[in-house]
């Protein structure tokens, strides 16, 4: 059996064996793409797509998640408004450009979730477009850059071209335009977005990369110069970036000295297989002042390579968030996976629109509920000196009369790790949360 592997839209050729594709079949598939003949596949159904095309994949901008999920994820982002950006927990998409909606992995035949022993083809790391990944709540987008065929392209290439950059891989400029269009929408203008380049270009391409970023993002980019001159090389928080109207951050693992590119701020990066996410054993992560990144790999190249087996995949965001992981790079983003990122609101909560008089309680199930402010519950208390040290008040009371002890203050967990610490301290008791200061950020 002869196998040739590449990673563009027409990626998989076999002389013999399973999944053989002929040129005629490729032409049929292109025709179906043009005529939007196929019904939605299971990912697209879960995303409640309004329109599907080739292979049943959501057309760009047509994936939707529930209003509850969107609100819960936004809540968790806004809770971190005063945390330095390098310590914010952010949901990300591994190889976000390498998605079927953009033509990558046209011949993929694996079913999701893959099994570690599957013998199939899955070249694409993602199902949905940049636009839909962002709409689902992704805020860290990973893009591989290669200079090939006289263009900077988004490609899963390598130097030996065993997985090659090909002429039909999307150009870097196309990806930046799509992301820029999303950020310019009114409802997205305050969202902090990290774009991480796994950069295989050389310094000779710095000027070209700068030019594209300048064209599509301009002065909305938070630059290395801003970091040094305004903040003394210490990362600002979300509130400060919004005040500056610089909400786009470009990160690069290649240490280029380009005008817009920061070195990535996580000190350690693990594959899923190499990270123990047992929340009972993660204090060193949550208490660390360094950010940690976890990433997965769902690609399968028949019998040649199986990313699930070698690197693992993220199937539950929450256990990593509770463990204090800073940046998560997941494959095959979909609505059901995004639900696993929620550790705050119980499903369906809040049942009615909240306002500044709403009172929020952590229940016995470790989720949030809006309750009558005259009910009596314990209070969530955090140390004024150690923000990861949580305890309960000695007694219960109404929301308006917090009873935290000396050196403690009434508060609300700002991230997954703090939520886990409070939940452990609560030991099944019901607890008032000081969510009031954050309500204006969520009420328009």
UniProtKB/TrEMBL annotation:
Keywords: Membrane, Transmembrane, Transmembrane helix. One of its GO terms (molecular function) is phosphoric diester hydrolase activity. GO terms for cellular component: membrane. Residues 345-382 form the C-type lectin domain. InterPro entries: C-type_lectin-like (IPR001304), C-type_lectin-like/link_sf (IPR016186), CTDL_fold (IPR016187), PLC-like_Pdiesterase_TIM-brl (IPR017946), Telomere_Capping_Maintenance (IPR051008). Pfam families: PI-PLC_cat. The keyword Transmembrane applies. Transmembrane segments: none annotated. GO terms for biological process: lipid metabolic process. The keyword Membrane applies. It is found in: Membrane. It comes from the Eukaryota. PANTHER family: MAINTENANCE OF TELOMERE CAPPING PROTEIN 6, MAINTENANCE OF TELOMOERE CAPPING. This is C-type lectin domain-containing protein. It comes from Stylophora pistillata.
């Amino acid at each position: 059996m002869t196998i040739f592997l590449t990673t563009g839209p027409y990626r998989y050729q076999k002389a013999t064996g399973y999944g053989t594709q002929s040129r005629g079949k490729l032409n049929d598939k292109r025709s179906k793409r043009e005529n939007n003949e196929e019904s939605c596949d299971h990912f697209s159904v879960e995303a409640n797509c309004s329109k599907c095309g080739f292979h049943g994949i959501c057309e760009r901008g047509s994936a939707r998640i529930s209003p509850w999920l969107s609100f819960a994820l936004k809540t968790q982002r806004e809770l971190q408004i005063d945390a330095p950006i390098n310590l914010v927990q952010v949901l990300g998409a591994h190889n976000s450009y390498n998605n079927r909606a953009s033509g990558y992995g046209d011949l993929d035949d694996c079913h999701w979730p893959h099994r570690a022993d599957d013998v199939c083809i899955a070249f694409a790391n993602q199902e949905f477009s940049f636009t839909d990944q962002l709409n689902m709540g992704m805020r860290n987008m990973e893009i591989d850059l290669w200079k090939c065929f006289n263009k900077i392209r988004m490609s899963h290439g390598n130097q030996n071209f065993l997985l090659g950059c090909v002429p039909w891989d999307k150009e870097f400029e196309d990806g930046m335009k799509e992301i820029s269009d999303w950020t310019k929408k009114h409802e997205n203008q305050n969202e902090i977005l990290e774009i991480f380049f796994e950069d295989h270009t050389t310094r000779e391409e710095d000027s070209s990369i700068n030019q594209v970023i300048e064209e599509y993002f301009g002065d909305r980019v938070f630059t290395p110069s801003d970091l040094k001159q305004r903040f003394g090389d210490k990362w600002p928080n979300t509130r400060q970036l919004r005040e500056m109207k610089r909400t786009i951050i470009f990160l690069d693992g290649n240490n280029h000295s380009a005008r817009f590119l920061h070195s990535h701020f996580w000190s350690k990066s693990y594959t899923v297989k190499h990270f123990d996410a047992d929340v009972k054993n993660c204090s060193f992560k949550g208490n660390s002042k360094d950010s940690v990144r976890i990433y997965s790999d769902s690609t399968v190249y028949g019998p040649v390579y199986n990313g699930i087996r070698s690197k693992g995949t993220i199937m539950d965001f929450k256990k990593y968030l509770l463990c204090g992981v800073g940046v998560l790079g997941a494959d095959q983003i979909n609505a059901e996976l995004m639900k696993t990122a929620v550790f705050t609101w119980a499903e369906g909560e809040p049942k009615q629109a909240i306002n500044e008089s709403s009172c929020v309680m952590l229940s016995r199930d470790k989720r949030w509920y809006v309750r009558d402010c005259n009910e009596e519950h314990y209070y969530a208390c955090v140390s004024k000196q150690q923000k990861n040290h949580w305890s309960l008040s000695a007694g219960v009371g109404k929301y308006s009369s917090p009873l935290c002890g000396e050196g403690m203050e009434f508060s609300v967990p700002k991230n997954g790790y703090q939520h886990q610490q409070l939940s452990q301290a609560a030991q099944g008791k019901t607890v008032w949360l000081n969510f009031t200061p954050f309500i204006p950020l969520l009420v328009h």
